[in-house]
Amino acid sequence: MLIRINKFLSSEQISIQINEKFEIDDEDFLSKTHLHKDIVFSGVIFKVDDNVILNGSIQYTFEDECARCLITFDKTVTTSFEAVLMRQLEENEESDEIKLKITDGCVDLEETIKQMIYLSMPMKSLCKKDCKGICPNCGVNLNNEECKCNNDLTDPRFDKLKDLLKD
């Protein structure tokens, strides 16, 4: 995704708003992440002293599996980042900042967006907040139906304690 900022850089404007939808065409990336192609990018580019700062937000949707009930569902995630736009990048400089190079009045955000998507993907997802999961005995999805298992299953480590209650 290329953002053209050459007019902005030569103008007297202090900031510029960007709202764009774009598609990632990297099939390998899409298959690894189960990402839907359409991604929404919105952001603001500011001139601050001699620097140009980008505050961006990415919204994407991917296919995920619920960690409790194993149902496949679409999950939408929004993540934000900040980057410094520079005309010249220094090779060996280590920094926690994201630095992007301005080339011919354009900034290429595709690799940065891919990295932000990788970093913001949740390790575990739930299809809904109150997902009940599946029964560990019979495998019934407890969101859809009641389990007919005997609920008096206990942890075998506590069986000796039951003997104390018999009297």
What does this structure look like?
The chain starts with a strand and ends with a helix. The mean pLDDT is 86. The protein has helices at residues 6-10, 27-33, 110-120, 159-165; strands spanning 2-4, 15-23, 35-48, 51-65, 72-86, 98-103, 106-108. The protein is 18% helix and 39% strand. A hairpin with a 6-residue loop joins strand 4 (51-65) and strand 5. It folds into 2 domains: 2-120, no CATH class; 132-167, no CATH class. It is built from 4 helices and 7 strands, in the order E-H-E-H-E-E-E-E-E-H-H. With 167 residues, the protein is α+β, with helices and mostly antiparallel strands.
Q: What share of the residues lie within helices?
A: 10-25%
Q: Main sheet: which strands, in order across?
A: 1-7-6-5-4-3-2
Determine the number of helices (DSSP H or I, runs of at least 4 residues): 4
Q: How much β-strand is present in the residues?
A: 35-45%
Q: What is the residue-averaged pLDDT?
A: 86
| Oligomerization category of the chains in this entry | single chain
**N-to-C SSE series?**
EHEHEEEEEHH
Give the number of domains: 2
The poorly predicted ranges are none
Radius of gyration: 25 Å
Report the principal-axis shape.
Answer: elongated
- Biggest sheet features: 7 strands, mixed
What is the rounded distance between the termini?
74 Å
Secondary structure elements and pairings:
Blueprint: E1 2-4, H1 6-10, E2 15-23, H2 27-33, E3 35-48, E4 51-65, E5 72-86, E6 98-103, E7 106-108, H3 110-120, H4 159-165
Parallel strand pairs: 5-6
Antiparallel strand pairs: 1-7, 2-3, 3-4, 4-5, 6-7
